[in-house]
UniProtKB/TrEMBL annotation:
InterPro entries from the UniProt entry: FAD-bd_FR_type, FNR_nucleotide-bd, MRET, OxRdtase_FAD/NAD-bd, Riboflavin_synthase-like_b-brl
Essential cofactor(s): FAD
Protein name per the record: FAD-binding oxidoreductase
Record bears the keyword Iron-sulfur: yes
Domain of life: Bacteria
Sorted UniProt keywords: 2Fe-2S, Flavoprotein, Iron, Iron-sulfur, Metal-binding
Domain FAD-binding FR-type: 22-129
Organism of provenance: Actinomadura rugatobispora
Pfam families named among the record's database cross-references: NAD_binding_1
Length: 265
């Protein structure tokens, strides 16, 4: 059994392009872009010219950083973009509060063009399946990151799929990657979008006011849904999608932390 499990693990690493000791690679920040007050995107270029491990839309990398006390910390960040030149992008929200998040704040404070970071190969099984079913992509806050990767994949393939993009945020200014979400849905012939802003939505195409409410949103029949955001948001969106006719088995979700959702619902 041990032999079988070791072989299975080796196959998983190989499938992720992380075999032959290539799980961890060094990357250099080629560009830093302030998306909002609390969100920054980092475009990364590999330091070596070995083949890049493949990445599926929705996958994340682990970023390994050395903290000021010398301890190494790992955090996961979804890949929000790929350049034809081999660059990759992550988008990091600074976690603020009574206890500021360690790694996100360190990255915000220190990640500059030229800074080197250690990244794992891409992993994650909440990825967009290439089917022709209609899609509902629903996110809140920084949960937009896997959704943007999925939209990029659809747009780069010229997908004719019906796509309903739903996003909720505190404010229009705080909505990271908003312009990209708009450009990508504009480029997709079957896509429409609805945004909700708690503070400053307007019923003029700029976003609705308040929290996401799907009661009067037409959910496409036979849709597959992908959700990402805080747990209360995902519970609510999932319940409304299921009430709107989406099969529970077709609702996929990514949790940016330990997965306590099913245990609690
Ligand atoms: C699959 C996956 C993909 C992800 N993708 C993204 C992404 O694309 N973008 C993104 O920004 N994030 C993403 N995340 C989240 C990211 O990995 C980190 O969890 C996030 O950046 C916070 O890390 P941190 O080190 O800043 O916070 P941490 O230091 O780990 O703190 C986490 C939380 O604990 C609280 N806390 C810390 N210390 C204490 C204490 N002593 N007492 C009480 N509370 C405390 C903090 O306030 C914070 O709310 C993803 C996570 C996963 C699992």
């Amino acid at each position: 059994m041990a032999g079988r499990l070791i072989a299975m693990e080796a196959r998983l690493y190989a499938a992720a392009g992380a075999h032959d000791g290539r799980t961890w690679r060094r990357w250099r920040i080629a560009e830093r872009r302030e998306e909002t007050r609390d969100v920054v995107s980092l475009v990364l270029r590999p330091l070596d010219d070995g083949p890049l491990p493949p990445a599926l839309p929705g996958q994340y990398v682990s970023v390994r950083v050395r903290m000021p006390d010398g301890v190494h910390q790992l955090r996961q960040y979804t890949l929000t973009g790929h350049g034809a030149d081999g660059t990759r992008r992550i988008t990091v929200k600074r976690v603020r509060g009574a206890h500021d998040g360690e790694v996100s704040n360190l990255l915000h404070a220190t990640a500059a063009v030229g800074t080197e970071l250690t990244l794992s190969a891409p992993f994650g099984d909440v990825t967009l399946a290439d089917l022709d079913t209609p899609l509902v992509l629903a996110s809140a806050g920084i949960g937009c990151t896997p959704i943007v990767a999925m939209l990029q994949h659809l747009a780069s393939n010229g997908s004719p799929r019906r796509v309903l993009l739903l996003h909720a945020d505190s404010s229009r200014d705080g909505h990271a990657l908003r312009q990209e979400m708009e450009t990508l849905t504009d480029a997709l012939p079957g896509a429409e979008r609805v945004f909700w802003y708690e503070q400053d939505g307007h019923e003029d195409g700029q976003g609705r006011t308040g929290r996401m409410d799907l009661a009067d949103v037409a959910i496409p029949e036979g849709a597959t849904a992908y959700l990402c955001g805080p747990l209360p948001f995902m519970r609510h969106a999932r319940a409304q999608l299921v009430a709107g006719g989406v099969a529970a088995r077709d609702v996929h979700y990514e949790v940016f932390g330990s997965d306590l959702w099913l245990a609690r619902s």
